[in-house]
Amino acid sequence: MHTTAPQPVLRTVVGDLAPGSVRGPALAHEHLVLDLDHRGDGAAVLHPDRHGAAVTAELASLREEFGLGLVVELTCRGMGRDAAALARIARDAQVAVVAATGWYYEPFHTPEIAAADVDELTATLVREIGTGIGSTGIRPGVLGEIGSHGDMPTAAETKVLRAAARAAAATGLSVATHAQLGRGGLAQLELLTTEGVEPHRISIGHQDLLDDPAVHREIAATGAYVAFDTVGKDSYQSDDTRLRLLLALLEAGHADRVLLSCDISRHGYLRTEGGQGYGHLFRSFLPKARAAGVDDGLIDLMTRCNPLRFLTGAGVEEI
């Protein structure tokens, strides 16, 4: 008997979508609600009550001006995640939002990590993916941002990466990582693939902070995605350097492995507070890329097709 293969599905905070229904660009690594305030200064915060209206207005404006169709929201356990707030923002802005599960890098680990082994952590993630975040019933659509710092993950970070990989294998979700300042991406990739995750379901984060085109080529050559996802964060890296690194990766033939985003991670980055905003990619960086010879077809590939393929495992013909 002939059976039809299941169609790829994009799991968003307000329901499932066919990836082909997303016709505009995506932001592949963002935060809409966040609390990383370990210093007590309130800077690394996007509070839904204080900042939700500004976040929503920015996304709605980008939908109207640039056709923004999707935001991959990588705030996970221990990062101030609020699935209900994400659903409100998605509905009000009329932009699809994918929520995440997993754990960030070690300084932000929750107590459950020290107390549990890999299998127990895997079960926690699989349960949340299956039944939803807390009592909301909202199911994560990606594992991320799974974190490590330094050239090699710590023991605790290794445990989390292994749990994320096993949860990915069990549920069919993809894995997006946080490689602190771009370092350690190859080690993350080896851990994840050793646990059975296919490279095309892995995005290695913050590679635009690592000025090493050879590493970018090596990641892309495996089939994994190379995330240039801190665009506009000039205090970490200039956009001129980011563009040089991107052009090198494109020249090497890896346009189909690139993901782009801005990683808005504090309220001071919002446009209402004088920051670059979620639209910096579209308003500033991509025009520079076009001026450097990157055509609209490549931009559509990097900003729409690639994020959808990463999230769902879909082929080009399904996007």
UniProtKB/TrEMBL annotation:
Belongs to the metallo-dependent hydrolases superfamily. Phosphotriesterase family. It holds the Pfam family PTE. The keyword Hydrolase applies. Coiled coil: none annotated. The keyword Lyase does not apply. This is Phosphotriesterase. Keywords: Hydrolase, Metal-binding.
